[in-house]
Amino acid sequence: xxxxxxxxxxxxxxxxxxxxxxxxxxxxxxxxxxxxxxxxxxxxxxxxxxxxxxxxxxxxxxxxxxxxxxxxxxxxxxxxxxxxxxxxxxxxxxxxxxxxxxxxxxxxxxxxxxxxxxxxxxxxxxxxxxxxxxxxxx
Length: 138
Description:
The chain is an all-beta fold and 138 residues long. 0% of the residues lie in helices and 46% in strands. The protein has no helices and seven strands.
């Protein structure tokens, strides 16, 4: 169905650290991610001087943003958002469908400003050692 756009507040993020029993919903303000493939230039005489490329290694990275909640700090045993931790992130694109991405948490960032709440975010990078990458059914 065309034009079936989703509200961002209905699209949460869940994280399950490697070895954890279950995934935990994270209270977020937004998320983004870029999934890409390395590209190798294979131009030769048969391409008549035009660039030709083949796909290589799949990769990805993104950021999850949130407001700091003293009742559920990101570094607690659940959800265990700490730099260097691997796991599975579920980035929902609707209220029932998510993209499952195996990741490693590259960086955790905290921010405080006068007149605003404390914020936090984490940057993730693709990590096949943490699990499988799965797209939701169409």
